[in-house]
Automatic annotation (TrEMBL):
Biological processes, Gene Ontology terms: DNA integration
Taxonomic superkingdom: Eukaryota
The protein, known as: Retrovirus-related Pol polyprotein from transposon opus
Lineage: Eukaryota, Metazoa, Ecdysozoa, Arthropoda, Chelicerata
Any one GO molecular-function label of the UniProt entry: nucleic acid binding
Matches recorded under PANTHER family: INTEGRASE CATALYTIC DOMAIN-CONTAINING PROTEIN, PROTEIN CBG26694
InterPro entries in the record: Integrase_cat-core (IPR001584), Retrovirus_Pol_polyprotein (IPR050951), RNaseH-like_sf (IPR012337), RNaseH_sf (IPR036397)
Domain Integrase catalytic: 1-72
SUPFAM superfamilies xref list: Ribonuclease H-like (SSF53098)
Amino acid sequence: MKTFCPTGFPKTICTDQGTNFTAELTQAFQDVLGVSPKFSTPGHHESMGAFERWNRTLKDMLNKNIQGHGNE
């Protein structure tokens, strides 16, 4: 939660159609946070290329943030 408090939660989360992303609990969580899911086309992995790159960038940013703050 600390990570998203300064910037807010994303408006959209792009994922494949894995059951962990389509489950009722995940949908309820998204509803509470006001997040809209966007699913890729099954079997068309190329459509996720830009999202995968963004995920890597976000992961790098989060890792730098964690390293900079230690065990607060």
